[in-house]
Every structure is written in C-alpha cells, then in structure tokens.
Design brief:
The structure is a homotrimer of 398-residue chains. With 398 residues, chain A is of the alpha/beta class. Chain A is built from 16 helices and 9 strands. In chain A, the strands form 2 sheets. A 5-stranded parallel β-sheet of chain A has the order 7-6-5-8-9. A 4-stranded parallel β-sheet of chain A has the order 2-1-3-4, sandwiched between helices. In chain A, strand 3, helix 5 and strand 4 form a beta-alpha-beta unit. Chain A starts with a helix and ends in an 8-residue tail after the last helix. The relative contact order of chain A is 0.16. Chains in contact: A-B, A-C, B-C. Chains A and B meet through strand 2, helix 4 and helix 16 of A and helix 2, helix 3 and helix 14 of B.
C-alpha cells in the first residue's frame, strides 16, 4: 500500500493535463512528463491489481478495437486493458481494405462511437496510410462530439501504425526502467537497435522507428544498425537526432551488426522490411497489382537472404558489455532451429532471456490501460485515491 | 434531473404492461402507449447517461445476437444497448444458411438461452423467412421456460426482418419527434418515403415497409413513391391504410418521385428491391440455383438502371416545403460521386444533412435498449427511481 | 434460501482443498469428494441464480477460450459460466493447426494470460494431441506464475479433449442424480453406453470414454456396446474396470446393441469413430496427406454404413426396463427423418425425451462454473456465505 501511495504522490508532481480528452498517437508528440505519467499510472494499476484492488472506473462503456491486420497479442493486450478499467471490447471487423473515401471514414467512426469511450486502432501495413487513418478517425469523432452527435469524445490509442508502435516501445522502456532500477540508471547505457535476418518479409518498421524515437530521450547511446538499403523513415531519424540534442546521449547509425553489439548494454535485434520497399508495396496494393506484389516479395526475400549473418548469436552476445546485455524482442521472434531454420536469434540466446522477454511483454496491457486512463480521467490522483478508499476487491473469493 | 423526473412521470401515465416478458417484432403489433413507452424509456436512458448515472439493471446475464447476414452498425447498436443495461453480448454465428428444420431451431434456441435474458435477431435476406424464424425462436424459448428448461424467458428484439425494421423506424420517428419538437407537431406533415436508384440490388424492403407501417400512425401525410414494379409487401400497405383510418393523416402512392417530393416536410429516399423479385430470390436460394440467382441479379441491376433519375438531387430537394425538408436515411447511403458514380443522393444534399443523419442513427442504441428494458422490467418507473436513488456513476473518474 | 444453506453445509463437509489453483482435466484424476464438490457448487450456483442472487466473484478478469475446432454449444456454455462469475471471455483463434513447437505453446500461453484467471480449452480432433496440449499450456502458465511473469496462476478447464469430456459427462451425471433423486438411487442402475449409426464420421470418442470413466464410480452396471472394430481407448477401459473394483457395480462390453438395451435404466446411444481410425487420421493430418484423409473418410463411412441397424428405435427402447429407460444424448443428435435419413435415434424416441434432453444440457454451464469456482476460490463456503450476505441482485429490475 505504501508503494502505491508513493507512486500516486509521484504522479501528482507531473504536468500532464493536456492528456485529458486527447489521443495517444506518437510518443514524440508527448512531453517528458506525459510519458512519465503513463509509466506511473501503469505501475499504479499493476500494484493495485497485485493488491487485489479493483481499478474499474467504468460501470459501462465500450472500447472499440479496429484492427486492419491480424494480431493476437495486441488484441489480448487491448482487451485486458479495457477489462481492467471496466470497458467492454467491441470489435470492428473491416477487413484489410485500404482506407475508404473520406466521408465513409467519418461516418463509420461516428456510427461505432455512440457509446465508445476509447478506440484502439492498429493499421500498420501500408506506409503513409495508418497514421493518416487514425488522425482521420480522431477528427471525425471530435467533430461528432462537438456537433452533439456523440455524448462523449472517444479518445484514440495507437496500437501500431506505419510510423510508431507506442504501446510496444513504452512497454519496452518501462521494462528497462524496472530492469535497470530507475530512469537515471539508463543514462549512458548503450542500446543497439539492429536489423536481423528473417525468412519472412514485410515486417513493419514501427518497432525500430518507435525505439529510436523514444529511447533517444533517455540519455542513452542509441545505435541503429542495418544492412545497406534497409533504412527506416528519415523523419523519425530526425526526431531521434533532435532528442539527443535535447536530452544528451547519442544517436548513431552503422551497417555493421558487430559494431552495434560491441559493448552494448541492451540489444534489440529484429527484422523489418526496407522503408522504400514498403512504400512500393503500398502502391502495388492500391493498384491491385498482385503479380507486382509477388515479384516484390520474391525480390525482398532474396535481398533478405543475403544477410543471414545478421543473427543474434552467442558470438554476437559475447561482444556486448560483459557478454550480458539485456536482449529485447517484441515477440514473436523468428528463432533459429525452433520456428525456422535460420532466424533473428539463436535458440540458446532466446532461451536464456525467455523470462525477461515475457516480463517485457507483460507491461503492454498496463501501458495501454494507462494511456486510456490518462485520456479519460481529468484528475487521476483523486481517482486513484477514491479507488483505494473504496477498496473494492477485484477478486472477491475468500 | 428535473428533465429525467418529468420523463419518468410521463412514462408512468402510459399503459404498457403487456410489454413485460413479451417480444418486439413489428411496430403495428404494439399499441400507441407501448410505442410511446419505448420513446420515453429511450429518452430517459439517454438523459441518465448524459448525467453520468449508470443504467445497469443486470449484474450478469447474456444478450444473444443472431445475425443471419452481415451488419456492422446494427451489431454495434445492439452491443451498445446490452452494455448500457449490463448484459454481455454472445454472438451465435450460424452463417447464412436457410432456416433449418423445426426441431433444430427449437433445440438451438434453447441451447443458447440458458443464461440469456434477451435475444436480438436480424434475418432479412429471404422474404417469408425472417419474421417466421423469429417467431419460431420465440415459441421455442417460451416453451423452454414453461418446461423448466430455462430459468428465465428470453425476450426477442427484431433487429430487422423481411417485414419490418422496428429499431430503425422507431429511431427515425424519435428523431422526427425531437427535430420537430413534439409528437403533436408531426400532425399534417408530409413524409415522402421514396425509392431511389442504387448500383447494388437486393436491398431489403423492411425500411420502406417499416416506415409506412409506423409513420401512418402519427397523423402525417405519408406518400410512398417508387417506379412501377417496385411494390412493397401488400399486407403492409394494408396496415398503413388501416392506420390512417384510425389516426388521421393519409397514405397515398405514386410512381413519380417529383410528386412525392412536392411540398414534403420529410423525405426518405432509399433503394430497395421489388418484393416480387426478393420472393423469387428466396426460392432460387432454397433450390441452390446459383445460375438463376446470377441471372436474377443481372435482371434486377438492368431494371434498376432504367431509373437512375430517381436520385435525391438539389433539384428534388428544391421541390420540398421551402426547399428545406428534413432528409432521412438509415445509412449507409449510396452517395453520388462519393461511394458510387450514380446513387441514391447527391453529395451536396447528403453533406448538408450529415449532422442530423448521424443524430438520427444515434437514437438506435437507445431504442433497442428501451425495447429490452420494457420486456424485462415489470415496473420501469420504480426501477428508474431506484437507479436515480442509487446514483451510481457510469464513469467514476474524477 | 433454506435449500441453498443446506447445499452449502453439504459442501462444507467435503474435502476438496487440492482443487484450489488446480486444473480440471480428467474426471478420474479427481477424488469422489472433489466430484461431489463440483456437483454441490453447480447446484448452489443454480439455486442462487434462481433466487436472483448475484454470484459474481470477479470485478474484472478474463476467461480465455481456446477452441481448436468449432463448437457453438460449448462456447455458449463456457461464456455463460464466465459471465455468471464475472469473467469476460476473450477468444484465442488459432485455427485448426496442429500443436506447434514447444516454445511457441509456452510463449502463446503466457502472452494471453497476463490478466487471465481461467483458460478453457477444447482440443479433441487428434488422438494423442489434445490432452497433451492442455497439459503443456498448464505447465507453461504455472511456470509463468512461478517466474513472476503472471500475477495469477490461470487454471484450466478441459472443454473436451481426445480422452475425456468432463464438463459433458459431469453434467450428464448431475442430470442423472437429479432425475433419479439422489446419488444412492443410482446404485445398481443399468447404464448402456452404446454406439449408434451416423451418416458422418469422425465424431470424437471423448463422450463414450468420459461416460465409462465416470459412471463406473457410481455403483452402476455400466455396459459399453459397439460393433466390432469400434473400440475406445484401452486405457480408459482400464480406468472403468478399476472403478468398479473400488465402487461396486460392473463394467462389461458387448457387440450387441440389443444386449446393452436389455433391461437398461439409462441408455446413451451415440456415434463415434473407431479409436484406431482416429489415430490414423491424426498421422495423415500431420503429414498433410489430404488424399489419404479422403480415402480414410470414405472407408469409415462405408464401415459405418454396415451398421445402420445400430439405431435407437422404439423397438430398442421397448427392450429397456419397463420400456422407460432415460434416453441421454450430448446433442446435437442425428435424428432419423429430421436431421438425416438414417441416424442415431428415431424421431419419436427423440421427441419423447426432448425436455429431459434439454435439461441434461442445461447443467453444463453450471458444471463449468463450478469447476472454475473451485479452482479459484480457496474457501467456497465462506465465499458463498458472503454472497448470500451481500444479497446483490443479479437482475435489479423491479
């Protein structure tokens, strides 16, 4: 209980009033205090759940899930977060269709939102589309609320777009904060965000982009490594550079996986498709050119196959700081000899880090719940105090 | 709060006791007081939600959704209504199969209902099947309850059948009541329920049928307009005629869209397939005659294409009363140059009425919740008083 | 209320402490007291629901449903059980894929369980796989809990595996207990678990196996009847034999449906595929041999067709004790002249037993809820007393 009260007190010292009634799209659109508030609320919600104190703030209400591609884990994380707060999930199954004409987006957004408090969207398959779509939905429901069509202003949570993956990267960072024992202990740590070989192509860039866009705020030495031609979105690299200017630390790039792993404290080897190729794929899909898509796929797989040495092996791990860098992955990973013949990471490495990897994933439902909480609750400190006061049991079994 | 208490007092003056433990199939099976009770409860639920007062009357219980064709909006409306009252939605996914043999319907209905308080069914694709199916399900669960198989008698809500679309039309009417400032102000208003061109065929007749079956009770001048051959169910026209005999107003028909729009106060241009064609389609489906269905489709699209001038254009709107008739649509509409090349309505007309159109749609979750409420609650006035007394917050955030 | 208090008192006299934080896989892994506890809790939950007393013990929390083949009824039963206790169902849609590599099962199990209190799994299609898979999932979440990855230890309920169908057979037995007026009245009753003809092949063996594995504990004369070659799992026959050694009664086998029906008090004619054929099918699926599967299917249908006389006809029923044996089926049954030309049971027989058949099915949600309750609640008696004390209405309508 002492722990919870301290966390609440810490939350009370932050300035995050602009989060109320606002969406969460990109971490670099949020201030340092706003990010800290998300971490504090995530920790409070978890601590309260561990103490069997109910954190339901909704007696009824819907959390809309809008997934434009399949995702088990994120669906479960979002559903867990909604359930924790008392929202019921209602899924909008739109299929994989490209963004529809303007009017239809505005109409659909309002039609599903009459009793929606939160909307979680995942739209990461097409460069230049996902983030745009989310903003369109947000504008639509803001207008609906202003016009009196909607009684409440549903707030949006980005469950992954083409640019950023805030729920994942915030969970990753909170994991690092807990692992290293505090935000201050992250200063000066070397984090290697590297590409890794995968037998499948077309994995989204939002994780490496989200990582360099966020971790560069923590005074860390962040190094982005990938083979030539596997560049991420230039705009996000600019965000990373601006971050280190402001916060200290560094942001460098290299085409050598070894160089990135050299002395690293944290490694994040993960596959992605080249930004330029993903842009091309978007266009081909828009034209319905399935032959072109097949050709592009073949091309990308062949290019990938030139870089099978980009694997997080024991040899690579031995290069890190005392050979004991923390290995991160958003999961699921392509594990050599387990899920594929040659993959992102060797089996023995993955096995050794299995427990912290699962714990890394375990932060996500709380991060999502925290983002939702801060967007709906005007006075979180008073709300948490009231929940502690009420002391309703989450589980009433004796 | 004053507003809510007045609404509850108004509810108390109506006679609707037969709604308790009964289903809601067709509006013309309900008395005037029963329809007024639905409107009153819908308004009360909305007012309470606006005041952040929880309207949950179930601590647990299921609302079964049985959709025999795809529907996003109605699914969301039903889920919203269930959530508002405290029921959890459980969906029965039967596919698009035709009604199964008698015994299987009775068995399925009982097997899903052990903890079901409400069943919402949408079955509108096949003339002569949907309404029949719903009645079969109702008989099955009534028998189950009488036999002690089911502890409660699940009540049914018609979410659209081949005959009527009560949740839509009741929402439309409540929208009119609010828009024109009261039921009395509807008397003498001219409402044009007209056909409109659509590039797709096979849209259900339940909306025009539901509209003429309901609006003719309000003392309005209702005119049904469509090209020759696009007749609706004759039985429903008889209901409309009987209604105006009893309530005043009028019910006329015309093959001229212009004549219908002339001086209209309310216009409802919407496409539908000819009743006779839909009957034919039902038979072809039953025989599994996919070639016949394709041929019929081709035929219907060609016939539709002869009437592209049946579009709600600015010119048409200019014919209405001061050119300012209220434009209604159940959505989604086929909007010329937005969702199709030529459609039911011109873009500029649709855009001008966008806000009231969204508000029209916003009544549906409350209408559904009201129908459910009145079927489950014996004493709604006492129940609402208790909810006000308890004053539980829907959203407990501070 | 008196009835409820007596049931709770009865529960208090049993020893079932090992059920806390444990899974429910096979009935023969549970002691007599543990099975009695499930029946007592099922009866208490039902009685409380009949008295409109809420039995919610979770304010939030998820019940994960993992169905590896389609099932409407079991989905509804599981959802009803979760809803009764306050858990929200979250479905993991894995498709019909074979069990994945070890690491992936462990990872998936943990990734879905961060806020899961219960996991219900149905995996009965492949001999040697389902039960194994469930145990793997259980080990995975136990390890996750021990490692601090999961805050709670999700407990598993077997919603049907290749070996047993505990929720079905426990519901069947509770139905018998209520029908015959007490456990003692089952002693000496003859129960015929017989094969029956069905036009479809590949029905799981878990029902006949579950029945002989459970009913042989009740001092009944259990007879298993099937054509030659339709043997069930030998290990389960050993369980049955061991049961009657301990509890009295008998377990015999015959290839004559008549002999089984002769003087029976209870008959359970139901189709299943030969154990050996199901094993073969598992291998063919693993090899992706679709031609082999088609050939096997043809073979099995031809073999089935030799035994069309294995039908529960009026003549068969006339052989039973006073011709009035209780007819059982897990539903849906293949009813001659209703769902098929020739099936498991004649129409008139099925019709005559329709009501008790529906009541038999109605026990399942309560059995599942009871299994869940006993796995999560350390002190059920105190918990029930508290629920009675709180006296929260399930339905608050007046």
């Amino acid at each position: 209980m002492e722990k919870i009260k301290n966390l609440i007190a810490g939350l009370g010292e932050l300035n995050f009033e602009n989060m109320y009634n606002d969406d969460f799209f990109l971490t670099w659109d949020k201030t340092d205090d706003e990010l800290k508030a998300v971490f504090a609320v995530a920790d409070i919600l978890r601590a309260m759940r561990e103490e069997n104190i109910s954190t339901k703030i909704f007696d009824s209400g819907l959390g809309i899930s809008l997934f434009r591609d399949n995702s088990t884990r994120t669906r479960f994380s979002f559903a867990s977060a909604c359930n924790l707060l008392g929202l019921e999930v209602q899924d909008l199954d739109e299929g994989k269709s490209q963004v529809a004409h303007g009017e239809t987006v505005r109409e659909t957004a309002n039609m599903i939102s009459f009793m929606a408090d939160v909307i979680g969207i995942r739209d990461d398959m097409f460069i230049g589309k996902g983030h745009t779509y989310m903003q369109e939905v947000s504008k639509a429901v803001q207008a609906g609320h202003a016009e009196g069509v909607l009684e409440q202003r549903p707030t949006l949570v980005n469950l992954q777009c083409d640019i950023d993956h805030p729920t994942q990267c915030m969970a990753d960072l909170l994991h690092l904060v807990h692992y290293f024992g505090g935000v201050e202990n992250l200063k000066g740590k070397k984090l290697a965000m590297t590409w890794a070989y995968s037998p499948s192509y077309g994995k989204p860039l939002s994780v490496p982009q989200g990582v360099i866009g966020l971790m560069t705020r923590m005074g860390m030495e962040v190094i982005l490594a990938h083979p030539e031609g596997y560049d991420v979105l230039p705009e996000v690299e600019e965000v990373a550079k601006a971050n280190v200017e402001k916060n200290g630390g560094s942001f460098t790039k290299t085409n050598s996986m070894k160089e990135a792993f050299e002395g690293a404290d944290i490694v994040y080897p993960k596959s992605w498709a080249p930004f330029a190729a993903m842009e091309k794929r978007t266009d081909l899909y828009a034209q319905g050119d399935s032959d072109g898509i097949k050709a592009l796929e073949k091309e990308l797989l062949e290019e990938n196959a030139k870089h099978k040495d980009w694997e997080c092996t024991e040899e690579m791990m031995a290069l890190t700081n005392e050979g004991k860098a923390l290995y991160l992955h958003c999961l699921p990973a392509d594990i050599t000899d387990v899920s594929c013949t040659a993959g992102e990471v060797a089996k023995t490495v993955f096995d050794r880090y299995r427990e912290p990897l699962y714990k890394q994933a375990g932060f996500k439902p709380y991060i999502i719940a925290a983002m939702m909480f801060l967007s709906k609750v005007k006075d979180p400190v008073a709300t948490f105090d009231a929940l502690l006061e009420a002391d309703k049991k989450r589980f009433a079994g004796k």
